[in-house]
Amino acid sequence: xxxxxxxxxxxxxxxxxxxxxxxxxxxxxxxxxxxxxxxxxxxxxxxxxxxxxxxxxxxxxxxxxxxxxxxxxxxxxxxxxxxxxxxxxxxxxxxxxxxxxxxxxxxxxxxxxxxxxxxxxxxxxxxxxxxxxxxxxxxxxxxxxxx
Length: 147
Prior knowledge:
By secondary structure, the chain is an all-alpha fold. Helices cover 81% and strands 0% of the residues. It is built from four helices and no strands. It has helices spanning 2-73, 77-96, 110-131, 137-141. Helix 1 packs antiparallel against helix 2 (77-96) and helix 2 (77-96) packs across helix 3 (110-131).
């Protein structure tokens, strides 16, 4: 009788242990499933935000290009100088910041970079000097083409 009771207790213990392992495996699988879902949603949200950022950047670039185009069509040659100089400086910066470049040797004329920067300065002087010619020290040094 004692052996039968012991066998019955062992049987119940084995059943409870098996049910515990089963429940643990189910919970583990559900946790992994939820983690995969959350990771996927995170990647989806990140991709959406990246796309939105690229879209906004493209809109801004389009507006800037339109403004330069309008300035050029109205006869302002400095606008094209600004646009080209900006792209030139950006390209040089991208080349110089490449991860695989240790030394950058380029056969370019240093005066062209200085000229591009000078062109940007002239545009800034013209833009800011035109609105307030009497108080700006920069506008007093820039010759006015109207006079």
